[in-house]
Write a structure and sequence with these properties.
28% of the residues lie in helices and 23% in strands. By secondary structure, it is of the alpha/beta class. Helix 1 (2-20) runs antiparallel to helix 6 (256-281) and helix 5 packs across helix 6 (256-281). The radius of gyration is 24 Å and the shape is globular.
Length: 341
């Protein structure tokens, strides 16, 4: 009995340690997350959403959400291209303004942020044009320097590179969706861009003659399930997809599915230890102790992980559309892939 209790304590400690390192949260459309602590780091009164940094490209001809975090109740003023918009930070510190539709522009512009607390910051070298999301696995992640895309002749207006690429830099996979992350926009270092995204952006530029922005949310050896949000599995049309949704729920300590699955997991460990004690008395070899915990914890490429870490932090950045190159990791799952797509 002491051995069983010790084994369970060790397993509980290990699982708790892993969960403690993972941010909690749900897809915003599915459930309202608990109120977060005021945003920001010491000395930093304004924290911006991941895509909002120097060299960004904003989407033309549609409303452009701009968001960030500050002290709850703070009034935030955003100024850009002659517009001046204000919003108040909620209890979680988040604020969102929506810029009116913008016209394409190659002229580098500045966006300023002013808080009612007196804090101020600005972003430089901003262009307006067409923004597209590029996502998928290794074929989309492959950089231009390793392909014939490096030979593309990218047209320029003056000294401004009309094609820029953004990536989240602070993380790539999370068990639960995160909103806060950091990232950077590449401005002209084309060899480092996604090869497919660069070729696509160059084609767009040749046709439209406006700046092009690419949100690069890719990672090698990832399945379509890893790029699907939790809510995307909820109404799955096949048993396989429904089973994935159950696994995702089993990884959320706030759900009854989590309690049932982990109780069964611990019970299986206890029963195996008891059986092994009896087998030892008979001189028989021990049975393996269950070691794979329930839920989507098979690795950081499991269902929802890449969406949570790479895509969720850039939502709802204004984009025209998305391109997708992924499938190798889902060989043999045609019908399942169809539903998940």
């Amino acid at each position: 009995m002491k051995t069983k209790r010790s084994a369970r304590r060790v397993m509980e400690f290990a699982v708790a340690a892993v969960l403690a390192m993972l941010p909690a949260g749900l897809a915003a459309q599915e459930a309202k997350p608990p109120a977060a602590a005021p945003a920001g780091q010491p000395g930093l009164a304004i924290e911006l959403g991941a895509p909002f940094c120097d060299n960004m490209v904003l989407q033309r001809q549609m409303q452009v959400p701009v968001w960030g975090w500050s002290k709850p109740g703070t009034t935030m003023t955003v100024e850009f291209a002659g517009q001046k918009k204000t919003a108040t930070a909620g209890n979680d510190g988040k604020w969102v303004v929506k810029l009116d539709p913008l016209q394409a522009s190659f002229t580098p512009a500045v966006m300023t942020f002013t808080s009612s607390t007196g804090a101020h910051c600005s972003l430089q070298n901003i262009l307006v044009g067409e923004v597209w999301l590029a996502s998928g696995q290794s074929n989309m992640q492959l950089v231009a320097s390793r392909t014939s895309s490096k030979n593309l002749v990218i047209k320029r207006e003056g000294n401004v590179a009309p094609i820029r690429e953004f990536s989240v830099t602070s993380c790539y996979a999370q068990l639960q969706p995160i909103e806060k992350a950091t990232g950077a926009w590449k401005d002209g270092d084309y060899d480092d861009y996604s090869a497919i995204a660069l070729a696509f952006a160059d084609t767009l530029y040749q046709e439209l003659h406006v700046p092009i922005g690419i949100l690069n949310c890719t990672f090698s050896e990832t399945s379509i399930q890893s790029w699907t949000p939790r809510i995307g599995f909820r109404d799955g049309k096949d048993a396989y997809t429904q089973a994935i949704y159950k696994q995702v729920l089993e990884s959320d300590p706030r759900t009854p599915e989590h309690k049932a699955a982990w109780d069964a997991f611990y019970r299986a460990i206890d029963e195996t230890l008891k059986e092994n004690a009896a087998r030892a008395k008979q001189g028989e070899p021990a049975q393996p102790i269950p070691s794979q915990p329930p839920g989507n914890l098979h690795g950081n490429r499991d269902a929802t992980w890449l969406f949570n870490g790479r895509l969720n932090p850039v939502i709802p950045y204004a984009i025209r559309g998305a391109i997708w190159n992924q499938g190798y990791a889902n060989i043999g799952e045609g019908y399942v892939y169809y539903n998940n797509l």
